[in-house]
Amino acid sequence: VSLSELDREWLLHAASLAGRGWGRVHPNPMVGCVLTRDGERVGEGWHEEYGGPHAEVNAIRSAGDTTRGATAYVSLEPCSHHGQTPPCSESLLKAGVARVVFGASEPGDETGGGGELLAQAGVEVVGPATDVRTFHEVDPAFFYTTRYQRPYLALKLAVSLDGRIAARAGERTPLTDDDANREVHRLRSGFDAVLVGGETARVDDPLLTVRYGLDPRILPTRIVLDPSAVLSPDASLFSTDSEAPVLIFATEAASVERVETLKDVGAQVEIVPQADGRADLKEMLKRCWGLGIRSVFCEGGGRLATALTREELVQRLYLFKAPLTLGPQGVLGFGSGDSTPEDLGWSSIGEPTQFGPDLLLKYDREADVSRG
């Protein structure tokens, strides 16, 4: 649906509000809402907390007694189902809203249809927007998982200007500055799990927790793909006070003794089959889904990143570029040293963002983030 310039301006503002729910509302979608009358904003809100009021209700409350005859701009089509809260479409009707403009259609069979209900009640309904991808981008994991019923996987890599992730194999090489590191932790806070390969876990000995004062509603599960279960029981993953669970994916190559050792220090160990001599990554993600993990944030290393991208299991790439070079002896992130994400079939998303000296670029595997 084609929108006026003013409609689009308010709708984009609603989309920007939605992002404030990052890390607090999933598996619900992030949604923002703005209420206007005579071209002036009278209220706004977003879905702030899982199980709490939705964006439309918060916007109505902020508008007080000025909602009758107002226009509601919502990043996602208002829901029409009874869940932990009443349907947003009914709340808009009770508030006397005369017009509803939404960016993206609600993809769920049970939750969709709010726009139709509002139209049947005499409300003018406009949506979805022509550039629906802009509003899918508000919460791509929600659209992907709702449609495909499998985990949304994002890959984060920090690389040098010459595409290296480490100075040498087996050597921990910090690349990004504190501002970029804080952004990585913010990203972690919005995913159900953080994943690394076994080699990265051994070399970097990471905690994989969310720090920098951030407070996600659910602590992301810390996953290590460790086919032979050789991760040390003395690893930092097990020594931290964090309540975030540790999940190890091993294969039949792992000895019973190694598996039991990891279980003894608190890890949950899942055995997945091998495919072409390597852990079956698709089966790993299938197990994640069965365990209730809907979104996974992979932080490397290079071999795992290459395998996941080769099998087209990654939907989003967060690429941090540090202003330094590591030379030909360095470890490649993925592809060849001269390859760019575009060369490998990725589509750039949005504008690059500066974090201190480092640059963050975002890419999707396909042009439409709602597709698999």
Automatic annotation (TrEMBL):
Record GO biological process: riboflavin biosynthetic process
Coiled coil feature spans: none
One MF annotation (Gene Ontology) recorded for this entry: 5-amino-6-(5-phosphoribosylamino)uracil reductase activity
Gene3D superfamilies documented for this protein: Cytidine Deaminase, domain 2 (3.40.140.10), Dihydrofolate Reductase, subunit A (3.40.430.10)
Residue ranges annotated for the CMP/dCMP-type deaminase domain, each copy included: 5-126
Protein name: CMP/dCMP-type deaminase domain-containing protein
The entry's keywords: Metal-binding, Multifunctional enzyme, NADP, Oxidoreductase, Riboflavin biosynthesis, Zinc
A Pfam family per the record: dCMP_cyt_deam_1
Pathway annotation from the record: Cofactor biosynthesis; riboflavin biosynthesis; 5-amino-6-(D-ribitylamino)uracil from GTP: step 2/4; Cofactor biosynthesis; riboflavin biosynthesis; 5-amino-6-(D-ribitylamino)uracil from GTP: step 3/4
InterPro entries, A to Z: APOBEC/CMP_deaminase_Zn-bd, CMP_dCMP_dom, Cytidine_deaminase-like, DHFR-like_dom_sf, Eubact_RibD, RibDG_C, Riboflavin_Biosynth_HTPR
